[in-house]
Amino acid sequence: IDIVVELVDARVPLSSKNPDIDELARNKYRLIVLNKADMADAKTTAAWQSYFEAKGFFVAKVNSQKGAGMKEVKSLIEKVCQEKKARDKKRGILNRPLRAMVVGIPNVGKSTFINSFAGKACAKTGNKPGVTKGKQWIKLNKNVELLDTPGILWPKFEDQAVGQKLAISGSIKDDILNITELAMKLADYMKKNYPGTMASRYGIEESDDSVKVLADIAIAKCCLMKGGEPNIDKAASMLIDDFRSLRLGKVTLEQPPQSEEE
Ligand code: GDP
Question: Which of 43, 77, 121, 238 has its CA 20 to 30 A from that of 180?
Answer without folding.
Answer: 43
